Amino acid sequence: MANSLFAFRSIRKVAFTSSASASVKWKGGVSLVQGASRGIGLEFAKQLLEKNDKGCVIATCRNPNGATGLLDLKNRFPERLDVLQLDLTVESTIEASAKSIKEKYGCLNLLINASGILSIPNVLQPETTLNKVEKSSLMLAYEVNAVGPILVIKQHMSPLLKVGGTGIERDVAVVANLSARVGSIGDNRLGGWHSYRASKAALNQLTKSVSVEFGRKKDPVICILLHPGTVDTDLSRPFQRNVPEGKLFTKEFSVQKLLNIINNIKSHDNGKFFAWDGQEIPW
Ligand SMILES: NC(=O)c1ccc[n+]([C@@H]2O[C@H](COP(=O)([O-])OP(=O)(O)OC[C@H]3O[C@@H](n4cnc5c(N)ncnc54)[C@H](OP(=O)(O)O)[C@@H]3O)[C@@H](O)[C@H]2O)c1
Hints:
With 283 residues, the protein is an alpha/beta fold. It contains 6 helices and 9 strands; from the N terminus they run E-H-E-H-E-H-E-H-E-H-E-E-E-H-E. It has a 7-stranded parallel β-sheet with strand order 3-2-1-4-5-6-9, with helices on both faces. It has a two-stranded parallel ribbon with strand order 7-8. Helix 1 crosses helix 6 (251-263), helix 3 (91-104) packs parallel to helix 4 and helix 4 (135-157) runs parallel beside helix 5 (194-215). The radius of gyration is 18 Å and the shape is globular. Mean pLDDT is 87; it is low at 1-26 and 162-170.
């Protein structure tokens, strides 16, 4: 098949409960990057296009006309990049993008939920103490960081879990949700950042449950959670002062590492939470 970019034949029919854990060979395919207007999501879209000479990328964002980085990419890869509008807080936009992708591509090989919020001026501030916790902050962080990504998986992956599709061959799909180490309950030694921590912990639990459900399906889907490290983006910028020397990564470096994890994912990795360096993070 000319535009077949995935060669997952080796793990087809391998149940996640099996001890077999053949390596997945990643060659492109149809990838959806949700939250691709800037930061890590934009870098994922860029590297998926640049590092594979075939394969299509669908990049979603809240405001396609204002996403200058994506518009530049679209100019460079007009045939291989589609940009769709999706706001995680507006469920109809999740449904509409899923419908559009289903009609055009018929399947998805990779879904990366890269969006996330930590702070928004005058709206959301990472709480340093319990007294600063507001219901509105907890709800907003939960809506964007946990509820939205799970609805994206529901709308986009569930109807597309067939092996094959419109001219594209695949034996397994991967869902990668961008989480954060601070979402680990076991690793929480400093406290604070209540809304962000709790929303990422919720994302972790929801993703784990989806991984169990998908693991029972005939067509394999591997769901993982990824911590990108502390990365120099808009999200981390207000909090970079205390980052130790050498621990603030470029988005290029972080995404290269995360794609390496995705490229080498094995069936027994379903439902795991990985840091950028491939180390597993405790729940
Ligand atoms: N940077 C770090 O150090 C770091 C560390 C740990 C984990 N992470 C996680 O990595 C992921 C990417 O972070 P980043 O550093 O790339 O952040 P970023 O540069 O601030 O980008 C955040 C992205 O999320 C999108 N977004 C926000 N609200 C949205 C909504 N309602 N609907 C759809 N998209 C929405 C933004 O779109 P707009 O342009 O429309 O706002 C933007 O594309 C996040 O999940 C974050 O929690 C980052």
